[in-house]
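Today's session is about reading a structure prediction critically. Students often jump straight to the picture, but the first step is always the sequence itself: look for stretches that repeat, for charged clusters, for runs of hydrophobic residues. Only then move on to the predicted structure, which in these notes is written as discrete structure tokens rather than atom positions. Here is the chain we will use throughout the hour.
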Amino acid sequence: FINQVSFPKISGINELSLKRIFDSKKNAVILFDDEYKSHYDMFNSVSGKLRQYQVVLMYADRSQSLYYNLMNLVGMSEKKTPGLVIISHNPDPAVFRLKSKETNFIGIGNELRLQDDREVIRSNGIIKFVHDWKYGQLKSEPKSESIHSLSSLVPSLVGHNLMEIALDPQVAVLIEFYSPECKHCQQFENTYTELA
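Below is the predicted structure for this chain, in token form.
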């Protein structure tokens, strides 16, 4: 029983740890690192303080087989590493990413430098990020493509504009779901634009 429900202090990413998070709907703080365990000690130094927020702590680096799959799932990229993400299940699934404005937190402690050395994630900045998430002071970010339109009358819906366009109570909305590779969808594009 203990092996099934317990987590180590900081878990690497593997099928079992991800299954526990998503199947059990556990909230997780994940540090995506650019090199093997280069920032593990800094993350470990704040792990005791983060436990009070009832989160699973995970560490992901390129040496792990599911690294790129998880990056894609939460909307991370190589350019954003090292980076911090919270996968939340309260009340609905959501992803929160540490932004540069949250990293500019003055204080003493270990720090994690991004590749260009202009921004710094400090250990107390991580604690502040998790605290702000826990108390509803952060806004989740949908994984999303950039906003683009087929025409001025037919906007493409992506994560960034879905709520604004599709859920506007003032307007009736017709949504076409398509795949860019689908030949039938490509043929229907002109008809759909004319209809708009």
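Discussion point for the tutorial: Residues 183-195 form the longest helix (13 residues).
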